[in-house]
Amino acid sequence: MTKKVDSKVGLVVAAVGIVTFGVLLAIGFWIDHPIYLGILGFLLAFLAMAIVFGRRAERAAFGQMEGQPGAAAAVLDNIGRGWTTTPAVAMNRSQDVVHRAVGKAGIVLVAEGNPNRVKGLLAAEKKRMARIVADVPVHDVIVGDGEGQVPLKKVRTTLLKLPRVLPGAQVTVVNDRLRALGDLMSNMPIPKGPMPKGMRMPKGR
Prior knowledge:
By secondary structure, the protein is α+β, with helices and mostly antiparallel strands. Helix content is about 50%, strand content about 15%. A four-stranded mixed β-sheet has the order 1-2-3-4, with helices on both faces. A hairpin with a 2-residue loop joins strand 2 (about 95-105) and strand 3 (about 105-110). The protein starts with a helix and ends in an 18-residue tail after the last helix.
């Protein structure tokens, strides 16, 4: 999968391994400990290869997701422990969407779509939440490469850098309140049982 986006990944990873092993082995001969440094070089070469491959694979994955609907939701799903994420809490007919993440930093609304349109979605969602979580800090992030926006690959890092201001017990209370408020997906008028033939999902509210 990585090679489809990064055709040189195999050569780069192999070169890193060979160079790392070669340098350590050369140092081993220089200090008269080729076996010891050779073994160490072998282990470090594999470690270096794994690190380089991991970074290039991550870059390739973000490259494939960039610009795709729901890409930010996929990133939020992998943010790590301590965060509860809810995709598509708000959406409009143009498919601009807002996702929600709740953690010790408070509530983070992550929007993807047209920057001008998502500002209205963010404002409406903040107003909706203010009725029940007025005492909780709310941050907003607009995904994109423009001024004041956060690139997709930096969304996770941005959230993790936010100051932690809520204790774990309060995070649970906030999640319970927001769950009671509902979200776009749970509020959709979807009938129980098989979906009637020809029925279309609503595009937004």
